[in-house]
Amino acid sequence: MKRFCTLLAMFPLTTLAVSYPVEVEQQLNGTEVLVSTETIDRDMAGLLLQNYGATPVACSAVFRNGPEAPRTRRTTLQAGERKPLTAKFKRDVIRLRIKLTCEPA
Predict the structure, then answer these.
(1) CA atoms within 13 A on the CB side of 38
(2) Is 29 left (phi over 0), alpha (psi -120 to 50) or beta?
(3) For 63-76, how does the pLDDT look when each residue is reduced to its tens digit (9 = 90+)?
(4) pTM of the entire predicted model
(5) Are 89 and 68 in contact (CB under 8 A)?
(6) Which pLDDT value is given to residue 67?
(7) What are phi and psi for residue 33, nearest 5 degrees?
(8) Pairing mode, if any, of strands 96-104 and 22-27?
(9) CA 56 to CA 43: how far, in whole Å?
(10) Edge to edge, what strands does the sheet with 44-51 contain?
């Protein structure tokens, strides 16, 4: 038992991290938005948006995880602002599809 505990202590917790494929379909409509995805947990995902433009931007993200109902998140980003959008699901995520639409506000 002591050897088993020592073996577990040698592995960092990052080896137990969750990972699943994320597909992002972007329609930025001339806006200057940087998009990055985050896998937060086995049933939770995030999207980090950053507005590099000089004008405000209104964004809408639809998170889809298989047969579950899609989760829609909306936000308005001011010039230079950065905001996260997150979605939590009832089931484990196997493959996540996100449709992001941004337009000048």
Answers:
(1) 13
(2) left
(3) 999 889 999 999 99
(4) 0.81
(5) yes
(6) 87
(7) -115, 130
(8) parallel
(9) 31
(10) 33-41, 44-51, 82-88
Phi/psi at 2 (5° precision): -65, -40
Radius of gyration for the chain, computed over Cα atoms and rounded to the nearest angstrom: 18
Six-digit token string for 59? 């964004």
Q: Would you state the structure tokens that stand for residue 22, as one six-digit string? A: 């994320």
Q: Report how far apart the first and last C-alpha atoms of the chain are (Å, whole number).
A: 61
Decide if 59 contacts 50 (C-beta within 8 A): no
Burial status of residue 14 (CB atoms within 10 A of its CB: 0-12, 13-18, 19 or more): exposed
| Tens digits of residue pLDDT in 39-71 | 899 999 999 999 999 999 999 999 999 889 999
Confidence of residue 19 (pLDDT cuts 50, 70, 90): confident
Both structure tokens of 62: 């639809």
- Nearest by Cα to 75 from 54, 55, 96, 102: 102
Query: Under the phi-then-psi rule, with left for phi > 0, alpha for psi from -120 to 50, and beta for the rest, what region is 43?
Result: alpha
